[in-house]
Amino acid sequence: MPTEPENAPSSSPSAAPGLGRRRALLAAGAVLAAGVGAAAGELAAGDGTSGRAAAPGAPPPEAPVPFHGARQSGVTAPQPPATKLLAFDLPPTSAAADREALRTLLATWTRTLAAATAGDGPSTDPRLRAAGTTRLTSLVGLGPGLAARLGLAVPAGLAELPPFPGDRLDPARSGGDLLLQLCAADHWTLAVVTELATTAARAAGATPRWSQSGFLPGTEPGATPRNLFGFKDGTANPDEDAARQWVWGPPGPHQDATVLVYRRIRMDTAAFAALPEEKQNLAMGRRAGDGAPLTGTAEHDEPDLYAKHPDGAYVIPAAAHVRLTGPRLDGGARMLRRGYSYDDAPGDRGLLFCAFMRDPGLFTRVQDRLAARDALNPFLEHTASAVAYVLPGAVEGTALGDHLWS
Ligand code: HEM
To answer: Is residue 233 among the annotated active site residues?
Structure first.
């Protein structure tokens, strides 16, 4: 999972409200390190300025992920284990009034999220101070409909996705004018920040459209989390160089922005689990145990899509998920996947597919191939969908979306 320096606080003592300078620098160091969990924990443990006495033997508290930065932390920071996606609509009045409402809401969300992320500042909700370090990260995005209605300068390719064969999309769980993804160490934090963000949205005239909770299994820092099929999910994500080319916008106003494609995908986990492990591995093109491609021995080995058995059959079968999704078929283009699992009811659990890319046309091309022949299809059903322009981050002293108004 790429971790980027953009969200490190500036070296100004006021960079992270409520944090001592030393603690702010420790937080920066933690975010620069790939495994934010372990690194931050070790650093904070020796720091002694966290203001919370750790019980003997208790794990050391982790430093907050800074809110401010060129890019939003909800895309760049390592994935905390709990998420909540919130979609809102901004009912149309006049274009001028709607622009003003959006501007006001983005400014309020910037203040709210910055205070909640800092965790111990003077304007932090007391319930978040009591909760300990939250590891809150966030991202705010704008739906294609709102961007078009208000004439906002967003990337040209921003559009709702076309329908795909097999889709069973519920409009009440899909779309939206504004999308907010919160991630945190626990659902307590998410519940409190959801309330604060929703109150601000209502005050600006926006109405909640849908929300969706998700989670990850406990995973060692730096390791790839598993999905509910039991496979490591997120292995073949782009490194920083590839992300600059395929995930973030081109140099210019969108270079620290990206596009989120969200799909709520129901998974028949029981039926998949009933398959012999070898069939599961063939459907995926990787091994469940260690995540290695069928042609390799270690998780990060490159899949060899040309390797064949002596009888001429591909080692990674023609309909294997990994073959159909590989960047080779898209001129090398890659998306950054940061999925979460969900479990909403018996028979309704699966994957919250969240992927970031410069051009959402990439998702369409990959999903066209998957819908036609993915070996996972008998076990999957897409039940919701959304696309959002993920704004650049807010550096200290600015608000999310400021570039939209200049
Ligand atoms: C519930 C549905 C899905 C499951 C369980 C699933 C699972 C996986 C797993 C286990 C991998 C291999 C490990 C990894 O590289 O992360 C993978 C790779 C990948 N998946 Fe999915 N996936 C699902 C849906 C999708 C969808 C809808 C898309 C996009 C349309 C997609 C795109 C990709 C891509 C781009 C890769 C990396 C391929 C590579 O570069 O080798 N997946 N997926």
So the answer is: yes
Q: Which atom of ligand 1 is nearest to the CA of 236?
A: 15
What is residue 271's DSSP assignment? Answer: H
Strand partners, 208: 88
143 pLDDT higher than 80: yes
Q: CA nearest 379: which of 284, 247, 311, 245?
A: 284
Q: Which residue among the candidates 233, 256, 359, 374 is catalytic per the annotation?
A: 233
CA angle 35, 38, 42 (to 5 degrees): 130
Closest residue (by CA) to atom 20 of ligand 1? 325
Strand partners, 171: none
Candidate from 324, 337, 338, 356 with most ligand 1 atoms within 8 A of CB, to mutate: 337
- 31 in Cβ contact with 13 (< 8 Å): no
Give yes or no for residue 104 having a pLDDT over 80. yes
Among 322, 313, 336, residue whose Cα is nearest residue 280? 322
Tokens 């603690």 found at = 23
Summarised one tens digit per residue, pLDDT across range 344-361 is: 999 999 999 999 999 999
Measure 324 CA to ligand 1 centroid, in angstroms: 9
Q: What is the pLDDT confidence band of residue 109, given thresholds at 50, 70 and 90?
A: very high
Interval between CA 322 and ligand 1 midpoint (Å): 7
For 10-23, write each residue's pLDDT tens digit.
Answer: 222 222 222 233 23
- Report residue 286: phi and psi, to 5°: -135, 165
With residue 76 as reference, give the H or E element that holds it: helix 73-76
Residue 242: CB atoms within 10 A of its CB come to: 16
What's the pLDDT score for residue 18?
28
Phi and psi based region of residue 397 (left: phi greater than 0; alpha: psi -120 to 50; beta: remaining): left
| Residue 16 CA, ligand 1 centroid: distance in Å | 36
Please tell me if the CB atom of residue 325 comes closer than 6 angstroms to any atom of ligand 1: yes
Q: Return the SS3 of 126.
A: helix
Please tell me if the CB atom of residue 382 comes closer than 6 angstroms to any atom of ligand 1: no
Cβ atoms of 128 and 160 closer than 8 Å: no
pLDDT tens digits along 182-198: 999 999 999 999 999 99
| 3-state SS record for 158-169 | CCCCCCCCCCCC
